[in-house]
Amino acid sequence: MKIGVISDNHGYMNPKVFSVFEHVDLILHAGDIGSEDIITSLETLAPVQAVHGNIDTFPLVSRYPEVLSTMLQGAMICMMHEFRGLDDPRILAKMANFGGRDLDLLIYGHSHQAKLERIGGTYLFNPGSAGKRRFSLRPAVGLLKIEAQNRVVPEIVYLD
């Protein structure tokens, strides 16, 4: 399974996203969407699951949760906009729904800085910002492959 991971559009869609996500099976949006048009344009490529971010207002906050947890091809994935640590009660509550199973991947946004790190058995994955360039940070998105035995393979793709 191949998944596009995106965050922090702030109402702007970098046109390069369409070629990067051309053959994905699913798109995960980690918030600060900015406009329902962003979701609509992504849905032309693949189904979209999203969380709302701190700049999102009605109707986005009513359509998309603050935290999303899902099992994809055996991989336990949690997504939120603002990451505050793996001991965040919002994450722990979602994990309880899956019998306390270990988290394979946590996707987050907010900082606009693409980042990939591993803590224990959990990948922490910030795809960066797919919106207009802010600060000195390069615009980016992520790609995620889920392979056999819950193995997740995240990758950062820069859009400049």
Condensed summary:
The protein is α/β, with parallel strands linked by helices. It has one domain: 4-Layer Sandwich (Purple Acid Phosphatase, chain A, domain 2).
Blueprint (SSEs and pairs):
Blueprint: E1 2-6, H1 16-20, E2 26-29, H2 36-42, E3 48-50, H3 60-63, E4 67-72, E5 75-80, H4 89-96, E6 105-107, E7 115-119, E8 122-126, E9 140-146, E10 152-158
Parallel strand pairs: 1-2, 2-3, 5-6, 6-8
Antiparallel strand pairs: 1-9, 4-5, 7-8, 9-10
Q: Radius of gyration, Cα only, in angstroms?
A: 14 Å
Structural class: alpha/beta
**Percent helix among the residues?**
10-25%
CATH level 3 topology: Purple Acid Phosphatase, chain A, domain 2
Identify the CATH architecture. Answer: 4-Layer Sandwich
Task: Note down, in words, how this protein is organized.
- It contains four helices and ten strands.
- It is α/β, with parallel strands linked by helices and 160 residues long.
- It has a single domain, classed as Purple Acid Phosphatase, chain A, domain 2 (4-Layer Sandwich).
- The protein has a five-stranded mixed β-sheet with strand order 3-2-1-9-10, with no helix packed on it. It has a five-stranded mixed β-sheet with strand order 4-5-6-8-7, with helices on one face.
- β5, α4 (89-96) and β6 form a beta-alpha-beta unit.
Sum up the structure in keywords.
single chain, 160 residues, Purple Acid Phosphatase, chain A, domain 2, alpha/beta, globular
